[in-house]
Amino acid sequence: MTIEEQDILERAAAIGASTWSDALDELGIFGTIEGIPRQSGSGRMTGFAVTARELTGHLGDFEKHDFAVGQLIAAAGPGKVLMVDMGGARISTMGGLAALATRNQGVAGVVIDGACRDIEEIRETGLWLSSRWVVPTTGKTRLKLLPPGCDVSIGGVSVSQGDLVVGDDTGIVVVPRARTGEALAIAERIRGLDEQLESRLRAGESFAAAAAAVGYIPDRNR
């Protein structure tokens, strides 16, 4: 990872998903993932996307080696977030053992537009993981991993390899890699306004007065 990428991740980790969403609004970018709740892990997760798409089918449609969960895990590492596009299928692509291996590899997080299983085991690993579903149904002979790195769709958001991903208790936001610098600058400005507003509110000012004073919400009477 480059020094620039490390700097981006350190700065991004200080900013919540809601603030990132506001920053993307200013840029006219839709990047808020919908319908994929966090199932495991805690705190804020930040990393660069490693994208993967899996074909889905019925029991016996594919060979066991097509499942290729080891290849999926090996594609990521520290500072990376696995973004797995299964088209929302209710089939598990990651269980407890795979989650343990993923955690051991230092992967920042996993987001699955599909399902995981063995959720108790996954939670024991502490891996930050979100999935649309939790089901017992294995992906063996039901899933086929395509070559990682392709563009995918996760929770209604288009995701490309290397995009910035931020997740916390509120949700998950994807920032296009080419717009990361300007989005980060906007997000830091918004966070600064929030901090000023909070300081005034804690000092006893009304919301309307404090918001107007810091320019949080323009006062039409001024």
Automatic annotation (TrEMBL):
Gene3D superfamilies: Ribonuclease E inhibitor RraA/RraA-like
Keyword Transcription: no
Any Pfam family matching the protein: RraA-like
Residues binding substrate: G95, G96, L97, A98, R117
GO MF terms held by the record: metal ion binding
Named cofactor requirement(s): a divalent metal cation; Mg(2+)
Keywords, comma-separated and alphabetical: Magnesium, Metal-binding
Keyword field contains Metal-binding: yes
Residue positions binding Mg(2+): D118
Entry superkingdom: Bacteria
CDD domains tied to this protein: RraA_family
Protein name: Putative 4-hydroxy-4-methyl-2-oxoglutarate aldolase
Organism: Oceanibacterium hippocampi
